Amino acid sequence: EVQLVESGGGLVQAGGSLRLSCAASGFTRDDYAIGWFRQAPGKEREGVSCISRSTSKPFYSDSVKGRFTISKDNAKNTVYLQMNSLKPEDTAVYYCAADAFDFYCSEDGFRHTSDYWGQGTQVTVSS
């Protein structure tokens, strides 16, 4: 059974930093794509960043490029999202997603139709 467990959300002032973690388990292969989505109140869920073993560079949405950094510790099956220079518009519930077949990630974009999601972690940035 695939499990994705997130941690690291919280309340921070604008300009501050947070680091999210997502521990993945239950995958029988290690070439899965993994990444972060977020959903703000009244808005659709959007892809923020993802990384895949088959691509050399991660994907970042335009709204976070240059401020967020995704990384993966393969030994721990854990992906991190370092979020710097946070803005109030970054306030959302952040979800981890991963899949070996229904999640394709490249530097230029992603395609996600997987049902594997973490429980979500709230990030609130105050102005």
Task: Give the gist of this structure.
The protein is an all-beta fold.
Question: How would you portray this structure in words?
Answer:
There is one protein chain. The chain is mainly β and 127 residues long. 0% of the residues lie in helices and 52% in strands. It is built from no helices and twelve strands. Strands 2-12-9-4-5-6 form a six-stranded mixed β-sheet, with no helix packed on it. Strands 1-3-8-7 form a four-stranded antiparallel β-sheet, with no helix packed on it. The protein has a two-stranded antiparallel ribbon with strand order 10-11. The termini are far apart.
List keywords for this structure.
127 residues; 52% strand
What portion of the residues fall into strands of 2 or more residues? over 45%
Q: Could you tell me how far the N terminus lies from the C terminus, measured between alpha carbons in angstroms?
A: 40 Å
Structural class of the helix and strand makeup? mainly beta
Side-by-side strand order of the widest sheet: 2-12-9-4-5-6
Separate helix tally: 0
> What are the low-pLDDT stretches, counting only 5+ consecutive residues below 50?
none
N-to-C series of helices and strands: EEEEEEEEEEEE
Biggest sheet, open or closed, and with what strands and sense? 6 strands, mixed
Mean pLDDT: 95
Helix amount: under 10%
Number of strands: 12
Please state the overall shape, judged from the principal axes of the Cα atoms.
globular
- Radius of gyration computed on alpha carbons: 14 Å
